[in-house]
Write a structure and sequence with these properties.
It is a single chain. This protein has 146 residues and is α+β, with helices and mostly antiparallel strands. The chain is built from 4 helices and 10 strands. Helices cover 29% and strands 35% of the residues. It is globular, with a radius of gyration of 14 Å.
C-alpha cells in the first residue's frame, strides 16, 4: 500500500470517488452536503492506495493556525478493520505537527467514537446531528515538534 498526500486532480478524484461510495451511497448523505465549499482545487488529501485502488482517505484542513481539523475520513468497506484509518490519522497528525498545529479537533459519528478514543481523542460535546448522522465533537492535544 502507498500513501499519497497532495492536491493533484487525480488524487482529489480518488478521494472524491471513495467519499461518494462511503458517504453518499452507504450513509445516504446528499451529494451537496458531502462535497462542500472546503473541497477546493488547492485542498490536499491523504489517500491510501492498494495498487490503483483508493482504499482510504482523509481531508487535510486547518480550523485555525494551530488547530488541525481532520475531515471526511473514510475507508472502503472491504478494507475496514485493517488499520487503514489509524494509518491515515497518524500521517495527518504527523503532518499537522510539522505545520505547527498543537490540537486536533473533529466531528465524529457516534459509531466511530471508540476508534478515535483509541487514538487519544476525548469527547468535547454532547451529541448533535451533522448531515442527519448523530455525532460528537472530539479533540486531542498533539505533541510539540522539537
Amino acid at each position: 500500500m502507498k500513501l499519497h498526500f497532495g492536491n493533484e486532480r487525480w488524487n482529489q478524484a480518488a478521494a472524491f470517488a471513495l467519499r461518494y461510495e462511503v458517504f453518499v451511497k452507504e450513509q445516504h448523505i446528499s451529494v451537496q452536503e458531502e462535497f462542500d465549499s472546503l473541497d477546493t482545487p488547492d485542498r490536499k488529501y491523504f489517500v491510501l492506495y492498494d495498487g490503483k485502488e483508493a482504499v482510504g482517505t482523509v481531508r487535510y484542513e486547518k480550523a485555525e493556525d494551530e488547530i488541525i481539523q481532520p475531515d471526511r475520513l473514510c475507508v472502503e468497506e472491504n478494507n475496514r478493520r485493517k488499520g487503514i484509518g489509524t494509518k491515515l490519522m497518524n500521517a495527518l497528525e504527523e503532518k499537522a505537527v510539522k505545520d505547527g498545529c498543537t490540537t486536533s479537533t473533529l466531528s465524529a459519528e457516534i459509531s466511530v467514537v471508540p476508534f478515535y478514543e483509541k487514538l487519544g481523542y476525548t469527547k468535547q460535546s454532547g451529541t448533535f446531528l451533522e448531515d442527519n448522522i448523530l455525532c460528537v465533537k472530539m479533540s486531542k492535544e498533539l505533541p510539540v515538534e522539537e
